[in-house]
Specification:
Layout (H helix, E strand, L loop, with lengths): L3 H11 L23 H12 L5 H17 L4 H17 L3 H19 L3 H8 L17 H18 L1 H21 L3 H16 L8 H14 L5 H14 L2 H13 L9 H16 L1 H4 L3
Helix pairs in contact: 2-3, 3-4, 4-5, 4-7, 5-7, 7-8, 7-9, 8-9, 9-10, 9-11, 10-11, 11-12, 12-13
Length: about 290
Amino acid sequence: MPNPAALVLIAGLALTGCSTKHAGTYEVATANTATGSSEALMAEAEALWAQRTDLAMLQAALGKYEQVAAADPTNREAAARLVRGYYFLGDRQTDKDQKLATWDTAITWGKRCLAINTEFTELLEKGDETEATAARAFTEEDVPCLYWTSSALGKWAKLSGLGKTLKNLPTVKAWMTRVQELDPDYFYSGPDRYWGAYYAAIPSFAGRDLDRSRRHLDAAIAAHPEYLGTKVILAEYWARGTQDRETFVTALQEVLDADPDVLDDIAAENRAEQDKARALLANVDEYFAE
């Protein structure tokens, strides 16, 4: 149980107002037919997306997906690509302000995508529901946007500081729980990987649980060892949290030794995870006490 001082801290942060929440709105834009054929634009975007290891190609793809969304605002596939793409771009950037701005964009697109579910927006409009409680309205169609919006919101809030993290925690937890209910294997055991990072990263007074973190990560690795990001999370969050240097080094070396191209769908992500592994290993002595 949190101690009294921790409870006071949580309460104080919770009362800091709506400014600690993400400001994006749930709305579906009006179609702009002047942008061209959404089918042709989508084909162009997908061709660029396949080359997203190159950040210039990724940004070009995102521009095309934005045109698709302008022509067809209810196109969930394009919206999901935008959320995932801006999440991925932010994850690869190094400047804090750039990362925050890019993840902010990802969340904004995510909210537009989630607004396609009119049952969800109607619940919010009633005034007695929150983003968290209204999550029950989401269906399997919403999973891609829900997963990537949750991921981007969590990253944006964590980088923004403790106040935003705690303020957005109920939404992130409810949304990822809904993803797990609807499609637990989404994006190579994405929910398990998410909880693995979540329970290792949150403060102790908010429920940090390293044993639970490890169980989720082990489950994700067992189900999909080809996705290298799970082992990076194991090292960066769990191994550092437990001061287990051996697991840190072993997991990251396995990432570097793996073939990133084993699956075309995640080759770009795997190469980005190998870059993270190199950077983490280069700083191993800073993370562990002698």
